[in-house]
Amino acid sequence: MIHAVDTNILLDILLEDSEYYQRSADLLAQVGVEGALVISAVAYAELSAHFDHDEDIQRFLMDVGVRVEPINIEVARVSGRAWHAYIVEKKTGNSRRDASKRKPILADFLIGAHAIVGKYVLLTRDTRGLYERYFPSLKCVG
């Protein structure tokens, strides 16, 4: 089984987050035994902001056992549909209040769509329910 990894899981490890580091590291180790770990090029872009050199991010990804996959037009289409649903809800006032106060961004929808299109399980600690709401068929672990 292949698991897609949300950027937040990798940032927990990279930044040695005091609250989430151990849980995210354990989760990666556990599912890494079950199969491959992948991130989308979008997650790669989010993650790369924390590195000064390309070689450093490549080394980090190799150390955690994650490979990068490009996104394609199908991922863009699926994310666009979900993003549209979010925009419509926001305009009509039907969107849920975000408990974390962090508003979804298009990258979140591209990451979810990458997992849907690839038929992957997504490792995430999404506490907003974004993936559950806009990608109801996506199985998430975290």
Please tell me about this protein's structure.
- This protein is of the alpha/beta class and 142 residues long.
- The chain has a 5-stranded parallel β-sheet with strand order 3-2-1-4-5.
- The protein has a single domain, classed as 5'-nuclease (Rossmann fold), CATH 3.40.50.1010.
- The chain has 7 helices and 5 strands; from the N terminus they run βααβααβααβαβ.
Q: Give the low-pLDDT segments.
A: none
Largest beta-sheet details: 5 strands, parallel
Give the DSSP E fraction (strand runs of 2 or more residues): 5-15%
What Rg, in angstroms, do the CA atoms define? 15 Å
Find the count of extended strands (DSSP E, 2+ residues). Answer: 5
Q: What is the count of structural domains? A: 1
**Total of helices:** 7
Averaged pLDDT, please? Answer: 92
Q: Which fold name corresponds to the CATH topology?
A: Rossmann fold
Topology of this protein?
Layout: E1 3-5, H1 7-14, H2 21-34, E2 37-40, H3 41-48, H4 54-64, E3 66-69, H5 73-92, H6 106-118, E4 121-123, H7 130-134, E5 140-141
Parallel strand pairs: 1-2, 1-4, 2-3, 4-5
Helix pairs in contact: 1-2, 5-6
Label this structure with key terms:
11% strand, Rossmann fold, alpha/beta, globular, 5-stranded parallel β-sheet, 142 residues, 56% helix
Write a short abstract of this structure:
The chain has about 140 residues and is of the alpha/beta class.
